Amino acid sequence: MSVTLAFLAGVLAIAAWWLRHGQLMSKPWLEEGLAADLDDAAPIPTAKIGLCIFLAVVGALFALLVSAYLMRRDMVDWRALPTPSLLWINTGALVLSSIALQWAWNSARRDDIDGVRAGLLGSGVSAVVFLAGQLMAWRQLSDAGYFLTSNPANAFFYLITALHALHLLGGLVALARTGARAWGRAEARDVRLSVELCTIYWHALLLIWLLLFSLLMHWVDDFVAICRQLLT
Predict the structure, then answer these.
(1) Any idea what DSSP says for residue 78?
(2) 98 vs 22, 61, 85, 120, CA distance in Å?
(3) Is 219 helix (H, G, I), strand (E, B) or coil?
(4) b/e map 145-161, b = 16+ CB within 10 Å
(5) In degrees to the nearest 10, what's the CA dihedral of 7, 9, 15, 21?
(6) Alpha carbons 116 and 200: distance in angstroms, whole number
(7) How far is 78 from 64, CA to CA, in rounded Å?
(8) What does the alpha-carbon distance between residue 94 and residue 130 come to, in Å, rounded to a whole number?
(9) DSSP state of 43
(10) Contact 77, 11 (CB under 8 A)
């Protein structure tokens, strides 16, 4: 429950910052200046607003899943499974994928189409490496006898990692479409918004994965214990 409350507090903080800096709370009828000045303020694209709403729902889903994980692991039938060392390599691949996409976004803002193409390609390859590494980690656990239905800890591990991989796979579809447009057009500004949306989505998935990785590696146990003491 503490994880859910912390996530909701984070969402409210991000929403407040967005409202402050996104000019959504401005009152143009009270501001001085010519009416032409109002046209200079670029509105927030509808696609970006939709993406932020979608990411809020995704974050809430993972927050509830993590809360269920923390409550379920306190029961007597919980037997923790070993965390595959391959997850370290997979995490590095996802970090590189996010960095490459940030490079593509920066290149798009500089109208550097070659940099956009290189960043999109590097991000896509790194993301595929991450997904392939996740499949290998699942295979290692299965070969060692840690099956999905043999223990609640196993089920949560497969569920959490598979759900994240599914969202990343969906992001690869959007990334592939953006890449096709980047290679089919000569101007970076034609794909600037698409690259920006992919970058925001990738950074959000990276943040979610880092939190999940910390949870699976038992690095947040002390933090969870402190939160429980504060709430009791």
Answers:
(1) -
(2) 24, 22, 21, 10
(3) coil
(4) ebeeeebebbebbbebb
(5) -120
(6) 15
(7) 19
(8) 6
(9) P
(10) no
Q: Do residues 154 and 141 make contact, with C-beta atoms less than 8 angstroms apart? A: yes
Q: Is 194 exposed, middle or buried (0-12, 13-18, 19+ CB in 10 A)?
A: buried
Q: Kindly state the tokens that stand for 156.
A: 């949560």
Tens-binned pLDDT, residue by residue, of the chain (232 aa): 454 555 556 555 655 554 454 444 444 444 444 444 444 555 788 999 999 999 999 999 999 999 899 888 888 889 888 989 999 999 999 999 999 999 999 999 999 999 999 999 999 999 999 999 999 999 999 999 898 888 999 999 999 999 999 999 999 999 999 999 999 876 888 899 999 999 999 999 999 999 999 998 888 766 666 665 665 6
Topology of the domain covering 2-231: Four Helix Bundle (Hemerythrin (Met), subunit A) (1.20.120)
Show me where the domains of the chain are located. 2-231
Alpha helices in the chain, H assignment, sequence order = 2-21, 36-40, 46-72, 86-109, 113-143, 152-184, 192-216, 221-231
pTM for this model (two decimals): 0.81
The SS3 call for residue 171 is helix
The residue length of the chain stands at: 232
For residues 118 and 179, give the distance between their C-alpha atoms in angstroms, rounded to a whole number: 10
